[in-house]
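User: For my dataset I need records formatted as: sequence, then structure tokens, nothing else. Please produce one.
Assistant:
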Amino acid sequence: MPTVPILMPQLGESIAEATVIRLGIAVGDAVRADQEIIEVETNKAVMGVTTLCNGMVSEIKAQEGVSYSVGSLLGTLDVTEEEVARTGVDTLESLEAKRFGTDQATSPARAEANLHFAIEDGDAYEEAPAVVPSVKGLPVPAGTMGAHYISPRMRARMDDLGLREADISAVAGTGAGGRVTVEDLERFLDYLEAWPSTQASPMRLAVADAMRRSWTRPLATVGLPVLLDRVLEHRRTHEPKPGLTLYMLRAFALALTETPTTAGYLIGDKVVHPRAFDIGVAVQVEDGVVVPVVRKVDQKPLRELISEYDDLVDRARRRRLTEDDCRGGIATVTNFGTFGLTIGTPIPLPNETLILGIGAGVKNPVWSSEAEVFLPATVAEIFLTFDHRVVDGGGAGLLLKRVSEILQSPGAL
């Protein structure tokens, strides 16, 4: 009689395992197709594992309170040949035949081992067969390790070459589950020899390293349109004229003083709060970006910041910054509107939680409640990218809204 495996399904796009909290079956029970037989809990919800066909429970491997990865064997069903033909479900034997060939699939010990992941002797790797979804409508990957598993041998070769995981994302793997082998990497590097290339500058490598480290965190971005007419009017009457970025820098600092935890940094189980509101400004230079830091922005009025800001930006463009000039910022302001861009999602530095981005100002019709008519106004989109471990979307939105409100009183800056 054919045997059909009961496998841990993919219960969500980002869920790799689930914990069995209730077994609703026993050996010898008759079950029907789509019957919920096992209740499992993920980090998001309690869900049910259902059967794919009619049959009788022949074995239960799952235990309550134990976590199992996607594709793990939870039990088996004995089904009839007619039921297999009717539903088209894969049997334990057919899955093994697809994966390893008919001869190897006949071994009972081999068949059971191949339904679980195993890493032996450092580089040996076996992967579960393709998993049939038992929660309808959800995609199921071939395995939970697959292409992103890097063997110790592969890791050592990457270290020799100075490569990171992101550098091999374009390599198609031929190893088990699609993983990239050393041979795949060497073939890829030989293939690239025929392509034109340039040596990356130290600046470009430094930016790349910072962005890699930044992207290890869950980052999110929120945006808001801001009226700039009052800021532009204030700027026209001020000498020397402060740049729009400096207005944003000052408003950002004042908003952060009201909710300093939003600029905190998560270390273990603590959010470390800023001791000073020193904020960096992104300056485009040849082949990269540098971020000098303006000190105590919350304590200095706009007129006192102009000369300090202009000096930092000038030295940044001439590559004359010292190490201290770029140290200790709690957040950054970047004005990509100078390139004519209206929308962007900037990435904060690895040692910062926040970055405020400014788009180009454009003329838009804006409703005037006083005149009860649409009037032309200069509007720019501002964006806040934040570490979602420290700040939620609501908190980030309130911070961004507060920046917008402060900008409507530029004389107070």
